[in-house]
Amino acid sequence: MSLFAMMWFTYRAWQIDYPAVPVTVPIEQGAGTAPELAPVQAPADTLPSLTESGVSAEVPVLSASEPGRVIRVRTDVFDLMIDPQGGDIVRTDLPLFPVDKDRPDEPTRLLDFTPGNRWVFQTGFRGIAEGEEPNHLATFTSARDEYVLGDDDDELVVTLNWQYEGPLRAQKIYTFRRGQYGIQLDLTLENQADVSWSGVPYVQLFRHHIPVKRSYTSVDSYSFTGPVLYDGDRYEKLDVDDLVTDPVNQELAGGWLASIQHHFLAAAVPPADDVVRYQAITRGSDYLLTALSREVREISPGESLTYSVQLFIGPKLQDQLAVTGNELELTVDYGKLTILSQPLFWLLTKIHGFVNNWGWSIIIVTVLIKLAFYKLTQASGRSMAKMRKLQPRMKALQERFKDDRQALSQAMMELYKREKVNPAAGCLPILIQMPFFFAFYWVLIESVEIRQAPFMLWITDLSSRDPYFVLPLLMGAAMLLQTRLNPAPPDPVQAKVMQIMPVAFTALFAFFPAGLVLYWLTNTALSILQQWRINQVIGTS
User: Of the residues 18, 94, 449, 499, which has the fewest C-beta atoms closer than 10 A?
Assistant: First the structure.
């Protein structure tokens, strides 16, 4: 299993360095639909209007300066800022998720308006005809500069009014709920003019892209960081560099857009029944994801329109993600093993509900996986035990035919046939088990629920390395003992590799999260017990 694990780590490193190329879908311009948005080369202070003739409009970027005045909103899970210039959220701190367990007063910050870390939502309405419109460059006002969720309240509503004296009235209404990282945003527009107003609602996400440097000592580097889109059927990670030459342009219903990183994300989910044009472009080191409603809304005099968007800004808590958007929990990036990882995560959380300790939950799930494959691994173990029993006779044959490899191979095959031993019998059970073990590996890597969770004694954070390297050393010793219980490979080179493997894995796992090392140590210890028992039975038979 150790050899397969090393192959897996190499494969993951290759995937990070050479991600899949995103698929782009061309859009045909149709009558009665919103024109395509096109990128600009430099920031703009105003928004060109959409026209009924279908002329493309530019997407501006707000200046990266600090807002002069902000509206502060505090709930039990958020401490965030809304900029009246645009009426959008420009900074989000998560007080329940500190950056480091040793610095509990320093919260994780997701959205940010500072130039080097710029990551913001931009929302509003675009008008077909020229004139004032409540877009993300417009000015909004609110009744207060600070809103706080009361101890007895389950909901907090923050209303911003468009500062415009004309015949249009617009609001951005944010609804925050206790314990929830999902935010409901209602974009409302009322037409008090004598003529109809036509336009489209939109939401876009702007982020300065900082590539994550891959390192075997950092688990963050194994997780994808960047833009993602969901088209109602398929979840796709987008490579920022590829967007330079191949921007994404899709039109669909039931999708969403997001920017993700290890354990956290910011996402926008338009109404499921609305056909939306999704675009993804880059501009230098920045990328922009846009969801522009395809259908032009016509608001007659005296009528109003409300367009509701679900935002999610926070940790990848799968139960909350699933409620916010269809398949939004796929942003917990288990990769191609999602079909196995999600049930394992469900099992892990159920066990945690009883034992209330993620460390013991990891141990129990590892035991259950081992029990599920007990009969299969027993067959593999019996094959290895028989091979071990034949080891002296195999060495004798190697000495006898050391100068004639063909004769040695024939003699070995005759020995296997006579003793009814199949040297390949131990491989198939291991191959069948490997997807389950690596699926659980990704559960431990990606699940934010285990982030900064304590276990016992000196292990106070299962998501960071063992501070004293005790678990990696125990794991290395267990792997060394495991190699002694198994028959040595007939090939001298392979034998040396198997001897080096425990040392290599000890060094590799030394900087991995303690939860991962605990899982591998438990699995190795159970394998040792099973193989020892099988060796005892075979040895006395």
Answer: 18
